[in-house]
Amino acid sequence: MLVALDQARWLGLWSRLGAHANGLEIFEKLIAAYVEPARVYHTAAHIQDCLTQFDWSRHLAFRPDEVEAALWFHDAVYVPGASDNEEQSAHLAQAALATAAVEPETARRIGRLVLETRHLTIPRDPDTQLLCDIDLSILGRKPAVFQEFEDRIRREYGWVPDTTYRRSRSEVLAGFLRRRPIYQTEYFRARYEIPARQNLQRIIAELAD
Question: Could you tell me the residue ranges of all domains in the chain?
């Protein structure tokens, strides 16, 4: 599904961050990244979906513009199977913001937020909790939407043998299922915790067949 990200929205955010460089240049780089041929799920559609979730929950953010910036950048670098996508995306974000003369601490915070979308630990900072809950909200969607997400992830890893993929994917999803709870904000727990657990249990069982 082709989705056009909102240039005016990006430029407004760029301005609010105090950036002085041409925001169109960075916007075009992001657009180019999100249409790379290897991407099936991690596309502009995913970013737009995250921004929609953010619009519904913006009131929870302490620094909403920084959370939004992290959403725009968090999958800017994505190579299926690479272990440093988030690190590279965080570096890209910080470098772009620094070049645009954004306050150094603001740039560092946004970079740290992007890095947390590795989902390796349970976030404690409220803005990080919100960001990660938004990124993981797909787990709690309606079964058909969740299944499409899983199908797209499988296509991104189409080169991985089926047995290997099933084992690795089950391990990843089981890690989220073991979290008590999956979502760290009350808002996202209320919306998605129960359906996320149902979706994860179902797909893990299917992967084991």
Answer: 7-208
Q: How far apart are CA 200 and CA 181, in angstroms?
A: 13
Q: What are 83-106's pLDDT values in tens digits?
A: 999 999 999 999 999 999 999 999
List the one residue out of 28, 138, 156 whose CA is nearest residue 85.
156
Residue found by looking up tokens 């499409």 in the block: 148
CB 91 within 8 A of CB 111: yes
Q: Binning pLDDT at 50, 70 and 90, where does residue 1 land?
A: low
First to last CA, the chain: 30
Tokens at 84, concatenated:
């440093």
CA pair distance 40, 54, nearest whole angstrom: 22
Q: How many CB atoms lie within 10 A of CB 143?
A: 12
- The fold for domain 7-208 equals Hypothetical protein af1432 (1.10.3210)
Gap between the Cα atoms of 104 and 145, Å rounded: 39
pLDDT at 176 over 70: yes
Q: What is the pLDDT of residues 102-143, one digit of tens each?
A: 999 999 999 999 999 999 999 999 999 999 999 999 999 999
CB-based burial label for 189 (10 Å; 0-12, 13-18, 19+): middle
Residue 77 phi, psi dihedral angles, 5° rounding: -110, 120
